[in-house]
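In this section we turn from sequence analysis to structure. A common task in structural bioinformatics is to predict how a protein folds when a small molecule is present, because the ligand can shape the pocket around it. The inputs are simple: the amino acid sequence and a SMILES string for the ligand, here S-adenosylmethionine. Study the lines below before reading on.
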Amino acid sequence: MSAQNATLSVPEEVGLLYDRLTALDTEGTGGSLHLGFWDLDNTEVPLVEAADRLTDMMTDRLRLEAGHKVLDVGCGLGQPAGRIARRTGAHVTGIAISRDQITRATELAEAEGLAGQVEFQHGDAMNLPFPDASFDAVIAIESIFHMPDREQVLSEIQRVLKPGGRLTLTDFFARGPIPADKQEHVDRCLRDFIMTLADGDDYLPMLRRAGLRIAEFFDITEQSVRPTFQQMSQANDQLDPVFEEESDKKFSPADMVDVDEFGSVLLTAEKPR
Ligand SMILES: C[S@@+](CC[C@H](N)C(=O)[O-])C[C@H]1O[C@@H](n2cnc3c(N)ncnc32)[C@H](O)[C@@H]1O
C-alpha cells in the first residue's frame, strides 16, 4: 500500500487501481480483463480470443438457461457479463469495487443495446448488497485474489445463491513453494496488482466451511498463465502509465513466464439443495 493511501482499506485501494486502469485504452484486451485459455498446441491464437474462450468455458459450467439470474463478482468493464447474456439469454448483474469500471460498463452495455439484460453496481464482494437466494449462478473471473478474505467472499456467494445454484471462479494459487530466485518477481506482481496467492489445498475446506460443494478443481496454469504472460511480454507495455510512480520496480510479464509455481485454477462448486 502506498504511503498516501495508508488509510484506505484493501478493497478501496483496489478500486482506485482499477479506476486508473479504466482510464487506459482497453481495446487490446477486447474489454475483458483476464487471462486467456489456449490449446497447448496452438498458443498463437490472440489473447482477446483466448480470453473469450475462458469466459465461455466458465459460462458453460453454470448450466444457464434463458431468464436465469447471474451475479458477476468483480465484473470489470462488463464485457464478460454482456457475452454471457448474449450467449445464454440470462440476466447478469455485475458488481465491482471500481466506480469508474461501473460507469464504463453501464455506458458500454447501453451502447450495445444490452441495457435490459445486464446491469452493474458498485460494491464490495466481501459484503454483497443482495438478498439471500437471489441468484441462480455466480461467476467470479480473476477477482477473488484481490479480496482480503476469500472465505468471507465464498460465504457471501453461498448466501446469495439459490439452493442447487452453481459458482465458477478462477483464482491464482501456489502450485508449490516459489523458488527463491523467482520470489522477487512474484512479490512484485502481487504487490503491483494488490493480490494474494491462494494455497490450492485450502480450497476444499474453505468451500466446505462456506457451505459449498466442490464440483471441479481444474489447474489451467499451462493453458492459461504461461501463454498469457508470453503474449503480454511481446505486446507494448500498456501498464506503464499505471505504475509510473514505481518505475524502478514495476511488474513485468516477461519475469513471470517461467514461474511454474504461479498457478491458476478454474473452480466450480454448487450450493447443496
Ligand atoms: C482482473 S479484474 C477482472 C474483471 C472481470 N472479471 C473480467 O474478467 O474482465 C478484477 C475485478 O475485481 C474487482 N474487485 C476487486 N476487489 C473487489 C471487491 N472487494 N469487491 C468487488 N469487486 C472487486 C475489480 O473492480 C475488477 O473489476
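DSSP finds nine helices and eight strands in the chain. As an exercise, try to locate the residues that line the S-adenosylmethionine site and compare them with your own expectations.
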